[in-house]
Design goal:
The chain is α/β, with parallel strands linked by helices. The chain contains 9 helices and 12 strands.
Length: 239
């Protein structure tokens, strides 16, 4: 009867792998030149907007509250909706988004707490998000190389405001833009210890609108999520 080592050597031989005990030659160096060239921080925003627009996202830059309100009015008029849900991202409170939307005669539902805390229960907020025409959130990061918004439940509270309404609007600051996925993974507020898991560890990567092509190979937007996504850079000059 063949020993375990002999059986493994036969498998290695069949797979054209080196026999046990032999020296494995080093892998050839990987040349990634031209595949994903490094970005300069000065190019992050332009790169994000270019990639974002390739996947049907709409990008804005605003430097004042008047400009932000004009963008909101443009989005909301086309949306033809009165109901809007808001995540608990701090930028929404900083910019007094709920109050500004109320001045436009919009009805907002905000998520402020945990599963049972805050103004609304989780079930109520989920119901409001699926009934809303627009969901407004912040982000944790904006990923330049792929045109992606990164949202975590640690910051947003719950993710449904970015996933359920047919229109998603995300606000971000310039300092939240990063160049690569490696930077995002290094900075996410998620525990790496299996013994101490994060209480809020859901992360959503949003690269453009929801889309599917499995229906007779015809591209359809908005089947599994928002059909419109808007990313608004709010400059620091906007309080």
């Amino acid at each position: 009867m063949a020993t375990r080592q002999e059986m493994l050597d036969q498998v290695r031989k069949a797979l054209a792998r080196p026999a046990s005990g032999s020296v494995v030659p080093p892998l050839p160096s990987l040349d990634l030149a031209g595949v994903m060239p490094p970005l300069s921080p000065d190019d992050y925003l332009d790169k994000f907007e270019a990639e974002w627009e390739k996947v049907s996202g709409v990008a804005y830059r605003v430097a004042s509250m008047n400009e932000l309100e004009s963008v909101f009015q443009k989005i909301l008029v086309l949306a033809e909706t009165q109901a809007i849900t808001l995540s608990r991202n701090p930028i929404l409170k900083e910019l007094r988004i709920a109050e500004r939307l109320a001045a436009l005669d919009k009805f907002t539902t905000s998520w402020t707490g945990g599963a049972t805390e805050g103004t609304h229960s989780l079930a109520d907020f989920n119901k409001a998000s699926f009934a809303a025409g627009v969901g407004i959130t912040g982000v944790d990061f904006v990923l330049a190389e792929s045109g992606t918004l990164v949202l975590s439940s640690a910051t947003e509270g719950v993710q449904v405001a970015s996933l359920a309404p047919p229109i998603h609007v995300a606000l971000f600051r310039r300092h939240q833009i990063v160049g690569s996925l490696d930077e995002v993974l290094a900075k996410l507020p998620i525990s790496r210890s299996p013994d101490r898991p994060s209480a809020n560890r859901s992360v959503v990567f949003i690269t453009g609108t929801s889309r599917t092509a499995d229906i007779e190979q015809i591209l359809i937007k908005g089947v599994h999520g928002p059909r419109e996504v808007h990313a608004i850079l709010v400059e620091n000059s906007c309080p």
